[in-house]
Design goal:
The protein has 342 residues and is α/β, with parallel strands linked by helices. The protein is 56% helix and 12% strand.
């Protein structure tokens, strides 16, 4: 059985007694820093010199330090820089200040799982991983609720690593919803698989294929967009609330019949076999190594895919339709590359 922790299982005073540095002020970084601050934690944000995020953090009343300065000041260091930037950041700015008894924290296990970071034995290493984008972590906290999360301990030098991690999770509002205990290995492998095979890779490719099938058959691109992308949110929201059964309960019988007859023709045994191969590449490290090597080369293939994806017909049609639907609060994304430690 899964082990879940809630507010009653965590002592907020533990993290409130520590000096906490948040390295990075992106999606997760801003949410962690602000929620900790509002929970009474002494927190500083660590950023690279010249970071564009400094003004945003200071506008929220947060104190910003350089990365090395923040690591020297803190007793607890939460690393929230991009996965591929963490090893260099760790070796340059964190290691020199990892005194005995400090705590090193992560929100994703990638660098520990694949050995990109070699942590000395005299510190605690733990993870608190919200199962939500950072802006939602912040929104729900402000509303008085929280998002579910995962907690794991990789190294327990002090004997109190889990208790402190749960205290940190409580300061983020996560124990309001429930925190599930896991390991760095399990979190990393399932997270990468979910992204690659279902949530991002699988879903994106299915949406594109459906859109292109309808357009190639002569249907209006705008109609294809609504059917294959726009309405996806409606279906996912139903699943989110009540699983597949509630989604099927809420849709028409005709749509439910299409679910049962169409799904198995698309997700075939060959699809499941490919999923197992994808999982195998994640488990043995090939997937991580390929991503690390792509970054070392300057990400030429990745950036080309990003640019091509933003220019496809599906996106062009979507931009035009969303502009006519202000109730969506539409946003546009440029082909910008995140800056490590930003």
């Amino acid at each position: 059985m899964a082990t879940l922790f809630y507010d009653r299982d965590a002592d907020l005073a533990l993290i409130c007694s520590k000096r906490v540095a948040i390295l990075g002020y992106g999606s997760q970084g801003h949410a962690h820093a602000l929620n900790l601050r509002d929970s009474g934690v002494d927190v500083r944000v660590g950023l690279l010199a010249g970071s564009r995020s400094k003004a945003m953090a200071e506008a929220e009343g947060l104190q910003v330090l350089g990365l090395s300065e923040a690591c020297a000041w803190a007793e607890v260091v939460m690393v929230l820089a991009p996965d591929t930037a963490q090893a260099e950041l760790f070796n340059t700015h964190v290691v020199p200040h990892l005194a005995k008894g400090k705590t090193l924290m992560f929100a994703h296990g990638f660098n520990i799982r694949y050995g990109c970071i070699d942590v000395p034995g005299h510190v605690d290493v733990s993870m608190v991983a919200p199962k939500s984008p950072g802006h939602r972590v912040r929104e729900l906290f402000v509303e008085g609720s929280g998002t579910p999360a995962l907690v794991a301990v990789h190294q327990d030098f002090s004997g109190h690593a889990r208790a402190l991690a749960l205290s940190y999770a409580k300061a983020l509002g996560l124990t309001r919803a429930g925190v599930l205990e896991t390991t760095f290995k399990e979190e990393t492998e399932t997270d990468l698989f979910g992204e690659k095979a279902v949530l991002c890779g699988g879903m994106s490719e299915l949406v594109k294929a459906g859109f292109e099938t309808l357009v190639e058959a002569g249907y209006q691109p705008e109609i294809a967009y609504f059917e294959c992308l726009h309405e996806l949110k409606l279906i996912v929201d139903l699943m989110y609330r009540g699983g597949l059964s509630y989604m099927r309960y809420s849709i028409s019988d005709t749509a439910e019949y299409g679910d049962y007859t169409g799904g198995p023709r698309l997700v075939t045994q060959a699809t499941r076999d490919e999923m197992r191969r994808i999982l195998g590449e994640i488990q043995d490290g090939r997937y991580a190594q390929a991503w690390i090597e792509e970054n070392k080369k300057g990400r030429p293939w990745f950036e080309a895919q990003r640019a091509a994806g933003q220019d496809q017909l599906l996106e062009q049609v979507g931009r035009g339709l969303r502009a006519k639907m202000p109730f969506l609060d539409p946003v546009e994304v440029s082909n910008a590359t995140p800056v490590a430690g930003a």
